[in-house]
Design a protein that fits this description.
binds zinc ion; 2 domains; aspartic-type endopeptidase activity; about 220 residues; transmembrane helix; globular; single chain; about 65% helix
Length: about 220
């Protein structure tokens, strides 16, 4: 029974990422009747071709009609999503809270990764999390992070407004200690990228998201 539960949690993680990838790609022009298509030949995909991870494996990473390779990043993020939720379950985290945070941050991260910005309307998804954590909200840390990052941005520039807003909301939900760790870890990951890939421009939200997931599991 336990294995079944873990499998469900893993599948939930992969499905959330798979679903949000589509939403982030198409927002704000989402049609409820939309069918998934191959990006290249526009062929409508069959039901078994849209199952996370599985569809990638059976198609050997290629569209079966045009032969175009499917971006490996989809597979990797789906697996990461499954592993993250499973790890949160195995370490006895509050699964509802973690799943909600996971969902919102994943959507913001994919959106930032693809387009380089986040939609303000996506922040509305934080509202249910704020409601369920109403006893444990950290208003002063949130204000502190917001003021501090805006000040740093005013002097040195370079931090995106979206990054500041997301970090402030995380401070409201998770407290100062956790948020500082998230910033530190995200910066460290960027630094690693800068040294090895020689890039000095970052989409920061994916780093914030990844760091938050890791720190949530190990807190
Ligand atoms: Zn195709």
């Amino acid at each position: 029974m336990n294995y079944v539960f873990h499998l469900i949690i893993f599948t939930l993680g992969t499905s959330i990422v798979s679903f949000l990838t589509v939403i982030a790609h198409e927002y704000p022009h989402i049609k409820p009747t939309r069918r998934s298509k191959c990006d290249v030949c526009q062929r409508t995909l069959m039901w078994f071709e849209i199952i996370p991870i599985w569809s990638y494996l059976i198609s050997k990473g290629k569209c079966k009609v045009c032969g175009e390779a499917i971006n490996k990043l989809y597979l990797l993020t789906e697996i990461a999503g499954g592993i993250f939720l499973l790890a949160a379950s195995l370490t006895h985290q509050d699964l509802i809270f973690v799943t909600l945070i996971f969902t919102v941050l994943t959507l913001l991260a994919i959106s930032d990764y693809i387009y380089g910005y986040v939609y303000l309307s996506h922040y509305l998804l934080f509202v249910p999390i704020i409601i369920i954590s109403n006893q444990h909200l950290y208003f002063i840390p949130a204000l502190l992070i917001y003021t501090l990052l805006n000040l740093i941005n005013y002097i040195y520039k370079g931090i995106g407004l979206g990054d500041i807003e997301i970090l402030s909301i995380l401070a409201l939900l998770l407290g100062l200690d956790m948020t500082l760790k998230i910033i530190l870890m995200a910066c460290f990951l960027c630094l690693h990228y800068f040294i090895f890939k020689k890039r000095n421009e970052f989409r920061f939200v994916p780093y914030i998201t990844f760091s938050t997931f890791i720190l949530l599991i190990f807190r």
